[in-house]
Amino acid sequence: MNGAGMDEPLLRISGLTTCYGESRILRDVDLQVHGGQMVCLIGRNGVGKTTLLKTVMGLICPQRGQIHLAGRDLLPLPPHQRARAGIGYVPQGREVIPQLTVRDNLRLGLEARPGGLARQDRLDPQVFDLFPALATMLERRGGDLSGGQQQQLALARALQGKPQLLLLDEPTEGIQPNVVADIETAVRRIMARTGVSVLLVEQHLHFVRQAHTYYAMQKGGIVASGPTSDLSQAVIDHFLSV
């Protein structure tokens, strides 16, 4: 159970503006993710989608705006405290540490739990129900895994922190087409079994349609939103680069 009420969104972003030097990357972004839902952020490359996720995670500081998770103000918190507040982050490119074993990559995810590794040293066995192949690869190095296996590892690592919200930045990027469906299925299964909410950046149309709600970005701002069931071909053609 999360700390948000029935009608209160789990994640609320209001008026978020982020700049790199003189360039304004995010422009007064308003966005909500409700408990148990998947929200997809769509838009062509370079419109600010990754910047938005990094700002939520605390890796980039906004010039103004608000970010609340289950009613808690996240802006004063550094990234590691945001992770412990209930955010899991799977960045673009996955960032699996190639020299470490699968087991040690997973153990890094324990740092997101209250007390970190000092108090939590046991891997959550639920991830092996979600990703049974990982249980057979614990002593393999992360760099020796395929792209699809690394994505499973990155998802499983994020789940070690028992997040309320998962931020997923293009999880199907660089994945072979025959494995894309497996990643989609894994995310749906994670949501069903853990109750986690998902904010997803994605270009793959079939995956986009798995979400409850979409937000379309252009030039750093939200320019369209609604249920994905209402996502028209005109909007798809205009905002998706695939």
Automatic annotation (TrEMBL):
Keyword Endoplasmic reticulum part of the UniProt annotation: no
The segment(s) forming the ABC transporter domain are 11-242
- Which InterPro entries does this chain map to? AAA+_ATPase, ABC_transporter-like_ATP-bd, ABC_transptr_urea_ATP-bd_UrtE, BCAA_Transport_ATP-bd_LivF, P-loop_NTPase
Judging by the UniProt lineage, the source's domain of life is Bacteria
Q: Name one GO molecular function term.
A: branched-chain amino acid transmembrane transporter activity
Task: Please give the biological process terms from Gene Ontology that the record holds.
Answer: L-amino acid transport
Alphabetized Gene3D superfamilies for the sequence? P-loop containing nucleotide triphosphate hydrolases (3.40.50.300)
Sorted UniProt keywords: Amino-acid transport, ATP-binding, Nucleotide-binding, Transport
Family matches, as CDD domains: ABC_TM1139_LivF_branched
Give a single Pfam family match. ABC_tran
SUPFAM superfamilies, A to Z: P-loop containing nucleoside triphosphate hydrolases
Which NCBIfam families would you find in this protein's record?
A: urea_trans_UrtE
For this chain, the family text in UniProt reads: Belongs to the ABC transporter superfamily.
What is the protein's name according to its record? Urea ABC transporter, ATPase protein UrtE
